[in-house]
Design brief:
Helix 8 links the parallel strand 10 and strand 11. The chain folds into 2 domains: 152 residues, Leucine Aminopeptidase, subunit E, domain 1; 303 residues, Zn peptidases (Aminopeptidase, 3-Layer(aba) Sandwich). It starts with a strand and ends with a helix. The strands form 4 sheets. Strands 7, 8, 9, 10, 11, 14, 15, 16 and 18 form a 9-stranded mixed beta sheet that branches. The longest helix has 24 residues. It is elongated, with a radius of gyration of 24 Å. With 485 residues, it is an alpha/beta fold. Bound molecules: ligand BES and zinc ion (2 copies). Ligand BES binds next to helix 10.
């Protein structure tokens, strides 16, 4: 797909379609004569996601003008631009239109809106149909996106590029997340990470089972032992061109390529969805690609512990006690609470490598979906300063985040007489006890945990996004790194 920023008025754009944003309750000066009847009849109201396609509008070089309802002025921010751009692209693609221009007028062409329009368009164009074999059914990629501005502001070129890099990274995450679990084994995930790292100049190390045994990652290996597909710990390193701070950020993502639950097996109904239990890991791989391209000033290492959670003949049992890399012993009471077991060893390893700040993303609990639904990721922390940075990064990326409690009181639920900690709590507050389990291994290092079980996957298509993996929280990861200093 081609992308360009042009300094031009909407009427000069020579594309299949030009998208114009139409605020609710007003008439655009450039349309009010030609489309007087559409306005007066109420056909164009400007409600969000209202689309009116006009052919051969006099004075316009483009074949079509798409009047895109943008909602009320006071709600028309860059998050709205992102959604409307995505929905416009999906609307146009549905009609076979693949060269699209977005015209951002005088009050609309901020850097944030340019980034948002590009991101929304590229994310909106993505479809989960890589394995369809019939060309008719497969969606056609966009050929060209143009963002047209009247402003001469030079920063808009970088804003355009950032939108492209972040959206392509999120789409890489989605490509990986949607792969079926027979194809995307832990070693296949490691191969995807290696290909990304080599193509983008990152160094990468893949720790295999033997290496992890030598190091003492008993918690991760306990989960892996039920599968014939061997586990891995993927470590991707980005070093900034100019080192300006001692900080070293770790991004850690859960990479369970399939979660059957293990011996504590899940119900059959809906189990196929558990192929996306590696969405956090895929988000780390995507974010590292964007970071390699955008080159923030802080050192960032991405960690993806990856396993398949299967109930094989050698599977871990409820009652097993494993020794984690941190030295702490863990009693397994439910083999389906496996994400925290692989993450605790990755967290301990990130600390051993000297990471000073950590953010992990994981499809960790069904409980977070009960608490927050599919609109917000749940965020837990031991450090309010890092939380503030994370929330700002999320807001800028239009990835909704919601802070959750992590009081010491939750720790009581994880007490056991047989080991240092057990891997599940009671029925209640499951997202909080899962986070509390992780916190035990984090120690004093500033850390944020993001539970994306509800936000990593869309069960139903949205106007601006296909069903399936969303790529959350790639944008937040990237913003956190970019805004570090
Ligand atoms: N991968 C699941 C969490 C999950 C559930 C992700 C639904 C996406 C959608 C996780 O490994 C899990 O099974 N968690 C258990 C924990 C329980 C056994 C304490 C859960 O949430 O039920
Ligand atoms: Zn599980
Ligand atoms: Zn899981």
């Amino acid at each position: 797909m081609d992308l360009k920023l042009v300094r031009s008025t909407p009427s000069e754009l020579d594309t299949d379609a030009v998208v114009l944003f139409q605020l609710e309750g007003s008439e655009r000066d450039d349309l009010k004569t030609a489309l007087a009847h559409s306005y007066s009849s109420g056909e164009i109201k400007g409600k969000p996601f209202e689309f009116t396609l006009v052919h051969n509008l006099p004075g316009y070089k483009a074949r079509r003008v798409l009047v895109a309802g943008a909602g009320k002025q006071e709600k028309f921010d860059s998050a709205a631009v992102r959604k409307i751009a995505g929905a416009a692209v999906r609307f146009l693609k549905g009609k076979g239109i693949t060269t699209v221009a977005f015209a951002l007028g005088a009050g609309e062409s901020s850097a944030a809106n340019v980034t948002a329009a590009v991101e929304g368009a590229i994310l909106g164009a993505w479809e989960p149909d890589a394995l369809k074999t019939s060309a008719d059914e497969k969606s056609k990629p966009l050929a060209l996106i143009v963002v047209a501005v009247e402003s001469q502001e030079p920063a808009l070129d970088a804003a355009l590029e950032k939108g492209r890099v972040v959206a392509e990274a999120a789409n890489l995450t989605r490509d990986i997340s949607v792969e079926p679990p027979n194809v995307l084994t832990p070693m296949a995930l490691a191969a995807r990470a290696r290909a990304m790292a080599e193509a983008n100049g990152l160094s990468i190390e893949i720790l295999d089972q033997d290496r992890m045994r030598q190091l003492g990652m008993g918690a991760l290996l306990g989960v892996a032992q039920g599968s014939i597909n061997p586990p891995a710990l993927i470590v991707m390193r980005y070093t900034p061109p100019k080192v300006t701070s001692k900080d070293h950020l770790a991004l850690i993502g859960k990479g369970v390529t399939f979660d059957t639950g293990g011996i504590s097996i899940k119900p059959a109904d809906g189990m196929e969805k558990m192929k996306y239990d590696m969405a956090g890991g895929a988000a780390v791989i995507g974010a590292m690609q964007a970071i390699a391209r955008l080159k923030p000033a802080v050192a960032v290492t991405g960690f993806v512990p990856t396993v398949e959670n299967m109930p094989g003949g050698n599977a871990q049992r409820p009652g097993d006690i494993v020794k984690s890399l941190s030295g702490k012993t863990v009693e397994i009471l439910n083999t389906d609470a496996e994400g925290r077991l692989i993450l605790c060893d990755a967290i301990a390893y990130a600390k051993q490598l000297g990471c000073t700040h950590m953010v992990d993303a994981a499809t960790l609990t069904g409980a977070i979906v009960v608490a927050l639904g599919h609109t917000h990721s749940g965020v837990f922390t031991n450090n309010d300063a890092l939380l503030a940075r994370w929330m700002a990064a999320g807001k800028e990326a239009a990835e909704n985040m919601w802070p959750m409690p992590l009081d010491d009181e939750y720790r009581e639920q994880l007490n056991t007489v047989y080991a240092d900690i057990q891997n599940i709590g009671t029925r209640w507050g499951g997202a909080c006890t899962a986070a509390t389990f992780l916190k035990e291994f984090v120690g004093d290092t500033p850390w944020v945990h993001v539970d994306i079980a509800g936000t990593g996957w869309l069960d139903d298509e949205k106007k601006f996004m296909a069903k399936g993996p969303t790529g959350v929280p790639v944008g937040s990861f990237v913003n956190l790194a970019m805004n570090w200093t």
